[in-house]
Amino acid sequence: MQRRHFLSLGTGLAALSAAPFVHAQRELTPLKFTLDFRISGQVAPFLLALSKGYYAQEGLAPQFDVGSGSVAAITRVASGAYDMGFGDTGALVEFHATQGPLVQAVYQYYNRAPFVIIGRKDRGVRDFKSLAGKRIAAAAVESTRRAWPIAAKHAGMQPNAFEWVTTDFSQRDNVIIRGDVDGATYFHDSALSLFQRVPQDQLAVLAYADIGASLYGNAILASTAFAGKNPELVRAFLRATNRGVQGALANPMAAATYVKQREPMLDEKLEGQRFGITAQYMVTADTRAHGLGAVRPELLKKQIEELEQTFGLKSRPAADAVFNASFLPAAAERAVKA
Q1: How would you classify the pairing of strands 60-65 and 6-7?
Q2: To the nearest whole number, what is the mean pLDDT of the chain?
Q3: pTM (two decimals)
Q4: Distance of alpha carbon 118 from alpha carbon 136, whole angstroms
Q5: Domain residues for 196?
Q6: How high is the pLDDT of residue 302?
Q7: What is the largest CA-CA distance in the chain?
Q8: pLDDT of 22 above 70
Q9: Domain boundary residue among 195, 211, 227?
Q10: Does the pLDDT of residue 311 top 80, yes or no?
């Protein structure tokens, strides 16, 4: 289990005290938030918003904890251990089908899921069809692996076309480089560690989104009970976070400085590049048309139907139960500026 880290108000105290419009005497409301994984450029907007005092300006003192996966984040929020979190929309649909609407998505962070399979070209991996008969590494509980049957359908392949090799997240790069496997699943923006060790022209990056698997990825989640009792807190958190998103999109490399402040051992340039990849999945034709954080109800319904058909869900969750748009900031605030 990974060591837990805490991002509390104190971690950015100097930045917060210098931020404009922060009222020193204002009592701040604590809020517990679980990330999906460790600190990296993927979550730069949260750190930017924290350091610049955007949350404090909204009367909030959020505590951000690292997570153990985008699926596990849902369980953390559902249990009441966390008020809000960062987890996979597809996994949330499955959770609704089995456990009910205990958690809801309130801001769609990744407008398209950054699910990719990355393979070695010298092992014959060129496109999705070439994965047939190969060995692909993935963690046991992981969104990209879980969504493969849907991607396989869009690629015209059988879900069992290749062999899964269950591997810890931290070992994926190593097993590819050693040649134990032919490829591995990744969030595209989590693959920079591999790109640092293997020239990208030697790798095939196969994105689910490129074959028509238009899946929503990680979203900001809220406990349904918490949101029901504290709707203004949820709205305030999203307003501050949306400001962080806009700031990070405007200057990914500058946003990486806040990641570096939190985790000094990280490479600032690398984390800026990482968020640059993240941004490709946040800013799409849909977000330019409908604004950051929103979903198209018809597309979410399609994703729910695909999940139901693929996994035999015992019920079909309603799209408006999975995603609650009532907490989103005003459309003008969410318009893509970068």
Answers
A1: antiparallel
A2: 92
A3: 0.89
A4: 9
A5: 115-211
A6: 95
A7: 64
A8: no
A9: 211
A10: yes
C-alpha 72, offset from chain centre: 12
Whether 161 and 278 share a structural domain: no
Q: Rounded distance, CA 145 to CA 215, Å?
A: 13
Residues 74 and 133 in one domain: no
Which residues are CB-neighbours of 94 under 8 A, at least 6 positions away? Answer: 307, 311, 313
1 assigned to some structural domain: no
Strands lying side by side in the sheet with 183-187: 163-166, 135-138, 183-187, 115-120, 203-207
Are residues 254 and 330 part of one domain?
A: yes
> What is the model's pLDDT at position 286?
95
Across 256-282, average pLDDT: 96
Edge-to-edge strand list for the sheet holding 6-7: 6-7, 60-65, 29-34, 84-88, 218-223, 103-108
Which among 189, 211, 233 is the end of a domain? 211
- Paired tokens of 112: 């398209």
Angle between helices 44-51 and 231-250 (to 10 degrees): 100
pLDDT at 25: 57
Query: For residue 45, what is the domain's CATH number?
Result: 3.40.190.10
User: What span, in angstroms and rounded, lies between the C-alpha atoms of 210 and 155?
Assistant: 10
